[in-house]
User: Which sequence fits this backbone?
């Protein structure tokens, strides 16, 4: 494992949870060890790149990322990006409120410099029965802004939510 890789995986789980805009990642997860299980690992020192392949599973507490391939790229300044590839690559984590959050896409990309996380190609975010789908779903960390995009043509962004779940969230926020 390259130095700082644990931080990048931890950051990915935090950012995906934030992209839902609904709750925080489970706090206890971040004190757990990160385990990456793969059929193969290739370290390319000259390119500052580590590629995990063959049924990749990343676990930390309740966080679970599954992909066909995971590529971690590092620059002189530290970690630069991390991309999970799959058909689809998936993300799952239990939040502090006990609710699971799920994400999937053919690519899940975290750019540390731009401070964005992007779900690309058949992107889907789900919490409870609330779902956002599109070709691309991008979360800008610093702006706390999520944007979902279609590919154009007949492709559309779709959002499905249950009003009672939104009302329950608003009621909980009012109590806090």
Assistant:
């Amino acid at each position: 494992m390259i130095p700082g890789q644990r931080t990048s995986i931890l950051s990915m789980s935090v950012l995906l949870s934030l992209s839902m805009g609904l709750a925080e990642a489970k706090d206890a997860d971040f004190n757990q060890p990160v385990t990456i299980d793969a059929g193969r690992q290739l370290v390319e020192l000259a390119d500052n790149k580590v590629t995990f392949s063959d049924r990749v599973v990343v676990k930390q507490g309740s966080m679970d990322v599954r992909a066909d391939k995971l590529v971690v790229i590092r620059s002189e300044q530290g970690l630069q990006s991390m991309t999970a590839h799959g058909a689809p690559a998936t993300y799952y984590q239990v939040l502090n409120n006990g609710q699971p959050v799920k994400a999937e896409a053919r690519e899940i990309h975290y750019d540390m410099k731009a401070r964005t996380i992007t779900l690309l190609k058949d992107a889907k975010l789900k919490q409870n029965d609330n779902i956002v789908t599109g070709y691309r779903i991008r979360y800008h960390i610093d702006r706390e802004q999520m944007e979902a995009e279609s590919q154009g043509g007949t492709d559309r962004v779709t959002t499905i939510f249950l009003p009672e779940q939104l009302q329950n969230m608003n009621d909980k926020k009012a109590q806090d």
The domain at 5-175 is CATH 2.60.450.10 (lipopolysaccharide transport protein A fold). The CA atoms of residues 29 and 61 lie 4 Å apart.
